[in-house]
TrEMBL record:
One of its GO terms (biological process) is trehalose biosynthetic process. Its cofactor is Mg(2+). Keywords: Hydrolase, Magnesium, Metal-binding. The keyword Metal-binding applies. InterPro entries: HAD-like_sf (IPR036412), HAD_sf (IPR023214), OTSB-like (IPR044651), Trehalose_PPase (IPR003337). The gene is otsB. This is Trehalose 6-phosphate phosphatase.
Length: 254
């Protein structure tokens, strides 16, 4: 698979730097998008390339996902030294950026209850509970014309509650009772490993906050799939993402 010329050149420059952070979203990049989120497993070969990169001197590898860390670890199968950051950048190995007070825990319960009520009115819609809130998935609604109304009902309802933070994704609306940001997570990871530059691949609207913080000349931001983006480069899908990691591995080893 041939990568776009500009991306290939950027990877070559990135590979020559001393200390780097190689980071990526999970769904839609490492794992293809599937109808059942619980069955989203990595594309063969992708995790092997990431593990090989993580074993090289000066390379930190991180998965930054909207999933909770436990689910991310179970589906991806990755382990140390690969870093996993869940809940859109809020959930780390040492815990959450902020603890849920009793009031926030009650708000989370209200969000989940309201989302469940909405899903019940739109057959095929599903609610995914998350540590900081929940997500309304409409990819599998029986009547595709009901997807947008279901999401809009969630925006007008639980998403509008004081203290609730909404994040739009592809056929999903995620609600959290603490503000989350993949961009803030990447900034923290960059500082932790003293990276000269950061590579990040993402496919969803939620990844735009990550792309927005990659402003250094040697940073490499890659949008996977279609849609408007602030990323500098674009590739088609998970197979291309695997090719990016394999190319970087070969360059770094050379």
């Amino acid at each position: 698979m041939t990568l776009p010329d500009g991306l290939a050149a950027a990877l070559a420059r990135f590979a020559r730097l001393g200390t780097v952070l190689v980071s990526t979203d999970y769904d839609g990049v490492v794992a293809p998008i599937v109808s059942d989120p619980a069955a989203a497993f990595p594309l063969p070969g992708t995790v092997a390339a990431l593990e090989a990169l993580a074993a090289l001197p000066g390379v930190t590898v991180a998965l930054v996902s909207g999933r909770d860390r436990a689910t991310l670890g179970r589906l991806s199968g990755v382990a140390d030294p690969i870093v996993t950051v869940g809940s859109h950048g809020a959930e780390w190995a040492e815990g959450f950026e902020g603890a849920l007070s009793p009031g926030l825990a009650e708000l989370r319960a209200t969000v989940l209850s309201d989302l469940a009520a909405i899903a019940g009115r739109f057959p095929g819609a599903a609610v995914e509970p998350k540590p900081l809130g929940g997500a309304l998935h409409v990819r599998n609604v029986v009547d595709p014309s009901h997807a947008a109304p279901a999401l809009e009902e969630a925006r007008r309802g639980p998403a509008a509650l004081p203290g609730v933070h909404a994040t739009d994704g592809k056929a999903v609306l995620e609600l959290a009772v603490l503000e989350t940001s993949k961009g803030r997570a990447l900034t923290a990871l960059r500082e932790r490993c003293a990276a000269r530059a950061v590579l990040y691949l993402g496919d969803d609207v939620t990844d735009e906050k990550a792309f927005a913080v990659l402003t250094d000349a040697e940073d490499v931001s890659v949008k996977v799939g279609d849609g408007a983006t602030a990323a500098r480069f674009r590739i088609d899908g998970p197979a291309d993402a695997r090719a990016v990691f394999e190319e970087l591995l070969a360059l770094r080893r050379a």
